[in-house]
Amino acid sequence: MAKYLLVSFKTCPWVQRAAIVLREKQIEFEFRHIEPDNRPDWFLAISPHKKVPVLRIDDRVSLFESNAIAEFLDETIEPRLHPADPVQRAVNRAWTDYVPTFAHGVTASGYAIDEAGYKKALADVPVAFDRLEKALEKKDAGPFFNGAAYSLVDAAYAPFLLRYSMLERIKPTGAIEKYPRLKAWSAALLARPSTHSFPPAEFEALYRETLLKRKSYISQFIEAPRAAAE
């Protein structure tokens, strides 16, 4: 059996995407976290773009870019997460191609440095949500993108819907309430164990710490951890 090592920053959503696929396929793998500001030489030697994720296979092959990793895993290890029908598969691939645009649209508000940038970023959220809502309307009843079957589309969007949910707990906007199918899809993905590399509360604390370090506009609304009652 092949040996898999997934190299990550703790809060990287693109690594999370690869980890979700590994877990959905019940593949044993080692998770190794590195610091983005202190990338070790061994990592720089195996990562052509000097970015995460990197999936190291048998200490000899390095795969990079989350979409390429997901496609490789789906082509080589059962169960297949892409639809068998070639038309449906092409449609699914088109929606995974949209992920970077969606990701920016729904999470950029977390990294805006001032109120003007924050409000500008929020204006992109309905655009991204509307496109997914319309796509979900054309699908069978959920809970997942293709209906009952979990797919690579679900794995691709889950990290960003998770981050949107965490931003909403910091400063609620209620934007997703206008999109019932998207809201239900998000809830199904966030409830799925494969979505989570850390216990949810622990990960949310890490995410908030990242926002605080960046000194983003929204970080001022993060409440300090409450001391345990004596």
Observed structural traits:
alpha+beta; Glutaredoxin; Glutathione S-transferase Yfyf (Class Pi), Chain A, domain 2; 10 helices
Describe what this molecule looks like in 3D:
The protein is 51% helix and 7% strand. The chain is an alpha+beta fold. It has two domains: 4-76, Glutaredoxin (3-Layer(aba) Sandwich), CATH 3.40.30.10; 86-214, Glutathione S-transferase Yfyf (Class Pi), Chain A, domain 2. It has a four-stranded mixed β-sheet, covered by helices on one side. Residues 226-230 have low confidence and may be disordered.
SSE blueprint and pairings:
Blueprint: E1 4-8, H1 13-24, E2 30-33, H2 41-46, E3 54-57, E4 61-64, H3 66-76, H4 86-97, H5 99-107, H6 115-122, H7 125-137, H8 152-170, H9 180-191, H10 200-214
Parallel strand pairs: 1-2
Antiparallel strand pairs: 1-3, 3-4
Helix pairs in contact: 1-3, 1-8, 4-8, 5-7, 5-8
CATH topology of the largest domain: Glutathione S-transferase Yfyf (Class Pi), Chain A, domain 2
Number of helices: 10
Instruction: Please report the first level of CATH classification, the CATH class of the largest domain.
Output: Mainly Alpha
Spatial strand sequence of the major β-sheet: 2-1-3-4
Helix content: 40-55%
* Total count of strands: 4
Radius of gyration: 18 Å
Low-confidence runs of at least 5 consecutive residues:
226-230
Morphology call: globular
| Annotated CATH architecture of the largest domain | Up-down Bundle
Structural class: alpha+beta
Mean pLDDT: 95
From the N-terminal CA to the C-terminal CA, the straight-line distance is 51 Å
Q: In what range is the share of β-strand residues?
A: 5-15%
